[in-house]
Amino acid sequence: MSETTVATTELTSQYSTQVTGDLERNLKEQERVRGEIEALQAQLASLQQDHTVLVNIQQALGIPAAPAQPAPEAAAVPAPRKRKTAAAPGAGKQTRASRSAGAQKRNGKKSAAASPTAQSSQPKLVELVREHLAGQHEPRSAAEITTVLEQQHPEREIKTKIVRLTLEGLVAKNQAQRTKQGRSVFYTAPEAAEPTPQDEPAAQPSA
């Protein structure tokens, strides 16, 4: 009896040790996986933020988005044409119905594809920045311009970084001027031919 008790105790001790070790390894594995998930989530958030910034820059520079939708439409067009027309007298009506349905689908796709153009009907950021500079009499920084445009267009997501890139693009096209005051950079509209006071010719003394 004593030997049996000793053997049972040893088995219990071995199982207890093994279970304890398995639990520790399980917890460590959970921590490792949780850390990987957090890292991946942070990476995904960073990529999404970069995507938003790139899209805004694309819109600010007026670059058209690459059309990715026409390809599936072209692949779907031949399908109704390959249907057999030699059938019962009602087949003509069915083919007409199928064509009209296909036309409705294509129209739906075109209207869905036209939605970005509806958004692009809004004034571009370049135009907003140019108009703002034209109405200012003093140099403005990119941050100041961003604040004003955000107040004027709360429905749009306007960031200082993109406004600064837009301003640099205008400077490169001679549509804006850049000045530096210390470490700060300010922008103004290009100097037009300012009306110089035509001094004496208009006010010549009459003899």
What does this structure look like?
- With 207 residues, the protein is mainly alpha-helical.
- Among the domains are: 1-64; 125-188, Winged helix-like DNA-binding domain superfamily/Winged helix DNA-binding domain (Arc Repressor Mutant, subunit A).
- Helix content is 65%, strand content 5%.
- The chain has a two-stranded antiparallel ribbon with strand order 1-2.
- A hairpin with a 2-residue loop joins strand 1 (177-181) and strand 2 (184-188).
- It is elongated.
- Mean pLDDT is 74; it is low at 193-207.
Helical coverage, percent range: 55-70%
Structural class: mainly alpha
Strand content: under 5%
Strand element count? 2
Global shape: elongated
The whole-number mean of residue pLDDT values reads: 74
Helix/strand order:
HHHHHHHEE
What count of helical segments does DSSP give? 7
The low-confidence runs, each spanning 5 or more residues with pLDDT under 50, are 193-207
Gyration radius (Cα, Å) is 35 Å
The end-to-end distance, rounded to whole angstroms, is 144 Å
- Quick one: biggest sheet? 2 strands, antiparallel
Oligomer: single chain
Strand order of the largest sheet: 1-2
Write the layout of secondary structure elements.
Layout: H1 2-60, H2 70-76, H3 78-81, H4 91-120, H5 125-134, H6 142-152, H7 160-172, E1 177-181, E2 184-188
Antiparallel strand pairs: 1-2
Helix pairs in contact: 1-7, 5-7, 6-7
Observed structural traits:
207 residues; mainly alpha; Arc Repressor Mutant, subunit A; 7 helices; 65% helix; disordered C terminus
What's this, in brief?
The protein has 207 residues and is mainly alpha-helical. Among the domains are: 1-64; 125-188, Orthogonal Bundle (Arc Repressor Mutant, subunit A).
